[in-house]
Amino acid sequence: MTVFGETYANQYDELVRDKDYRGECDLIEDVFRLYGHGEIHTLVDFGCGTGNHSIPLAQRGYQVTGVDLSSEMLCVARKKSSEVGASVNWIEGDVRNVQVGGPFDAGLFMYAVFGYLLLNEDVMAALSNARCHIRSGGLLTFDIWYGPAVLTIKPSDRVKIVPVTDGKVIRIVTSRLDTRHHSCQVHYHLWQLTGDHVEAESEELHTVRYFFPLELELMLSQSGFALVSLTAFPSLDRPADETTWNVLGVARAV
Predict the structure, then answer these.
(1) CA-only gyration radius of the chain, Å
(2) From CA 186, how far away is CA 173, in angstroms rounded?
(3) Left if phi > 0, otherwise alpha if psi is -120 to 50, otherwise beta: which for 238?
(4) What residues contact residue 19 under an 8 Å CB cut-off, 6+ apart?
(5) Is 182 left (phi over 0), alpha (psi -120 to 50) or beta?
(6) In sequence order, what are the beta bridge partners of 210?
(7) By three-state DSSP, how is residue 81 classified?
(8) Is the pLDDT of residue 14 over 80?
(9) Closest among 205, 137, 140, 197 to 170, alpha carbons compared
(10) SS3 of 129, please?
(11) pLDDT at residue 9 above 80?
C-alpha cells in the first residue's frame, strides 16, 4: 500500500482545497438517512488522511474513529482537530488488519481508499476487517475509480499550481494504465516554492486500482456485505456508467 510522505502530507490540504469535503459529508449523511437501518451515531473512517471527512462529521455530533497508515497525515489531522476542538479518535494502522473496537454503526472508505488495495487478497482483507467493525445492518460507504469509465476516458497528464501564503505549490501528475492488473500508475512530482526558491521537492509513485461492478458485488458478498447502491459520484440517483470515473458505493453489513 502507498503511504503519503511528509512533504506531500504537509501540502495535501492545499492541493485538495477545491474538493468539497463538507458537501461530501452532506452526501454521507444523505446516505445514512436514505439507507440506514436504525440511527447512526458511531463511525470508523478507514484511510482518513488529514481528517477532511472525520473532522466535519465529528463536529456534526458523530463519534468518529479515524484510521490511516501514514503517521504524517495523522499528524496533520491531529493538529487540525485540536485547532477546531473536534474530538476524533485517531489511530495509525493498516485498514487490512487494524483493530479499533466497535461495533460501529457505519464505516467509510472515502477518496479512493479502496484503490490503494491492489491485490484481491488486500481488498478482501480490508472488507473482512471492516465487516468485523460494523454492526449487522450497518452501512459501508465508499468511492472508487469505475473500470468502464477509466477504460473509456483514459487518464491524462496534469499540472496543478496552488498559490500559498509565501509562494506556491506545483504538482505534476503523469499516469499510465495497467489493464492486466486493473490499475493506473500515477507519478506525483511536487515542488514547494518561496518566490523562485525551491523549499522542498518530492516524488511519489501511487498505483491506484479501478473496479468493475460484478467483481465489487462478489468481493462485498464474500466479506459479509450486500451492495445497495452504485451511483455517479456525488449523486445518489444517477447510475454509474462509462462516463463516470468516480462512483459512490453503499453496502450493508448482513
Answers:
(1) 18
(2) 7
(3) beta
(4) 52
(5) left
(6) 145
(7) helix
(8) no
(9) 197
(10) helix
(11) no
pLDDT, tens digit (0-9, with 9 covering 90-100), for 180-218: 999 999 998 888 888 888 888 888 888 999 999 999 999
Give the model's pLDDT for residue 5: 61
Asked if 27 contacts 234 with a C-beta cutoff of 8 angstroms, the reply is yes
**Where do the H-state alpha helices sit in 85-176?**
120-133, 147-153
Q: How far apart are CA 117 and CA 119, in angstroms?
A: 6
Measuring CA to CA, how many Å separate 252 from each of 61, 78, 97, 110?
22, 30, 20, 16
DSSP-derived 3-state class of residue 35: helix
Residue carrying the nine cell digits 485547532: 83
C-alpha cell at 70: 501514514
Question: Are the C-beta atoms of 19 and 230 separated by less than 8 Å?
Answer: no
pTM: 0.88
pLDDT digits (tens, 9 = 90+) for 103-156: 999 999 999 999 999 999 999 999 999 999 999 999 999 999 999 999 999 999
In this structure, what is the dihedral angle of CA atoms 102, 106, 112, 114, given to the nearest 10 degrees? 50
